[in-house]
Prior knowledge:
Number of strands: 2
CATH architecture: Up-down Bundle
CATH topology: Growth Hormone, Chain: A
CATH superfamily: MFS general substrate transporter like domains
Structural class: mainly alpha
Radius of gyration: 20 Å
Order of helices and strands: EHHHHHHHHEHHHHHH
Amino acid sequence: MNIALPPHTLAKPFTHDAKVIALVGMAHAASHFGHLLLPPLFPVFMHEFGLSFSQLGALMSVFFVVSGLGQASAGFVVDKLGARPLLFVALALFTLAAVLASRVTGYSGLVAVAALAGLANATFHPVDFTILNQRVSPPRLGHAFSAHGLTGNLGWALAPVFFATVTALSDWRTAYLAAAVLFASVLAVLVFNRDQLHTQVVRHAPDAVVEHSMAFMKLPVVWWCFAFFLLSTMTLAVVQSFSVSILKAMHGISFESATLTLTAYMLCGALGMFVGGFVAAYSKHSDRVVAVSMLTAALLLALCGTAWLGATWTMVVLAATGFAVGIGGPSRDMMIKKATPKGATGRVYGLVYSGLDTGFAISPLVFGAFMDRGWYSATLMGAALVLGLSVVAALGVGVRTR
């Protein structure tokens, strides 16, 4: 297959790569902030609208079902039209979702917000990785993936603090209007720097023998990657959606302290991503780095589930779990890159990262039922078990890539 793509092998100036990485990182932080558009205010919605944990979990399932279906499709669009237009549309949709959230009067409105935000989220991973793979020099890709993951975790870390602070100073509706301004500001910055985000679409020579656009789906390694994302993300969804409620129920921790613990988890994850960038740049076996990181995190999470540690140490160890997961993040992205056929970046990343959305969609339904029954310890133990299973998937990717 003869495919004309940008000259990836040519080294680019550091300033060029740094600017591209920063812009994509800003967009990724905004998308992860959008992941938590609703969860930080779950306690408010329970009080205001009389909702159960299962209903709240279903909101996240709506978000990630829409995002997953959209993401698998968005990869094809990115390969055909380029990444930049979809990036701008996504941020505009997040802005609209935040405005709509400020106006909701009941559960149906929250469902609409979840669906719109899920549609906004759908394009980010195929868009981000297409831009990074095309516009960043190969020697700096490990660090680019590290920065990408790090900024995502910072977006997650910012959301609980942002919504808690603005809600305390004013009210939750004002918090959503402030979030809309935040999304719109990021969009303005990216539009102003749009030349740095241009990507070339895949073009075939007239006499080339072209594989069917769905041919990559026959590769077993792609589905092992999908399985890894599904399993590892189910655990992350538990931490994001229920850790605050679990800490309050198991140890009597205040809402503010529990929220700060979730923020600490995300910040430790960001620090782990930074360290993991150096590991990914020099490691030849990305799958093994991922496996060790996820296994360590699973053991730490299971330790939190035993309730043996008490309140303070449970918060500390839960934050450390984020660091362990973070170290594996850049190697995870390198693992996917090695498994991606040439010219199919958008499609593969779209499908593989839809596993992330699938995990986020399934997990709140399963573990939300646990939470409604008061099985707080079992929720953490179950999340640790699923994360342990993701180790098998990561090693499966490595075997099939080598």
